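Subject: Protein record for review, amino acid sequence with backbone structure tokens
How to read it: Take the token row as a discrete description of the fold.
Enclosed: The protein record, placed directly beneath this head.
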Amino acid sequence: MAHEPATSDELATVFARMSGLLLSEETVGSVLRLIATLAREVFPECRGAGLSVLDPDGERITKAATGELVERADRIQYEMKAGPCLTAWAQRTVVRIDDLATDTRWPAWSRQTAELGLRSVMSAPMVAGDVAVGAMKIYAGQPGVYGPREESLLAMFATQAAVLVANAKSYADTSRVSTALQASLRDRDVVNLAKGILMGQGRVDEQTAFLQLADTARQRRRSVREVAEETSRATARRLR
């Protein structure tokens, strides 16, 4: 028999906690671990909850799970390249298995997962905008635990989770871009300083000074930045 789903107030509290985590700029891993823990709180019957995402190599992995049971069930799915979580992710729809002992959609996966002591499974895609960023799943040890109301609840939860994951990724991407931009600005400043030195020494224009740096870099098989740094350091030593 399915449990009574969380009330709207309870869900609002859960989502507020998740939003608070985003505001505190936690890492993606921390976000995902909290989501998995909160999923288990919302679905107290489940024996485990977890989230699947892509790793840097484009492989599907369980980034966060409430226990080894979830990781083992997921691992079977990844090895077989078939199962409810992968299907939910690919087709962007909630997938529910009422009883692994009788479901015929993924018989090999269902059989091995049932051997772990699991009977009910539900997976929901994590979609942010038009991008599927992963999938959430919950496992129960008894058959017939979940129903249509739980499907809607998990879909709501997965939507909130997807937004957090996407925002956390955007924050990380922005940080990387910011770091790259700062490095680019430093490179520009070093090159500009070296150009100014060459312009003063040889009474040449800016374009000619840059071409001198580039030609030296080519001859020495160094970057323009490295040659610019050497030029600046050499001038500083002469001025001491």
Summary: Strands lie at 48-54, 60-65, 95-97, 120-128, 131-140. The two ends are 84 Å apart (CA to CA). Residues 5 and 77 are 28 Å apart (CA to CA). The mean pLDDT is 80.
